[in-house]
Design brief:
This protein has 96 residues and is mainly alpha-helical. The protein contains five helices and two strands. It has a two-stranded antiparallel sheet with strand order 1-2. Helix 2 packs across helix 4 and helix 3 crosses helix 4. The two termini are 21 Å apart.
């Protein structure tokens, strides 16, 4: 889906989201990042999200890294934007 739709539908500049048995991925991402993001979101799907940043994210990060290490690292670099950093800050505080 588009970057704009991701923000309006899911409330932030996510690269991917698992929701209602469907994985949504932003169409503007490079293919190697998409591979990593899909693996990340599949991990969330199999874990049945625990509702906590520190319970949900580490296993998903590892899955994304294993699926496409360069795509995972490029995704980190692409996340160094004010909107993505604000999203992480909000999630770390437990607001989302």
């Amino acid at each position: 889906i588009t970057k704009e739709k991701m923000s309006t539908e899911f409330g932030g500049p996510y690269f991917g989201v698992y929701s209602g048995r469907t994985i949504y991925i932003r169409e503007d991402l490079p293919q190697i990042v998409k591979i990593s993001v899909i693996a990340h979101e599949r991990q969330h799907a199999s874990d049945n999200a625990q509702g906590s940043f520190w319970k949900d994210e580490p296993r998903a990060w590892l899955a994304g890294f294993r699926a496409q290490p360069i795509g995972f690292l490029l995704g980190i670099v692409m996340s160094l934007t004010p909107s993505r950093l604000a999203l992480y800050w909000t999630r770390l505080r437990g607001d989302v």
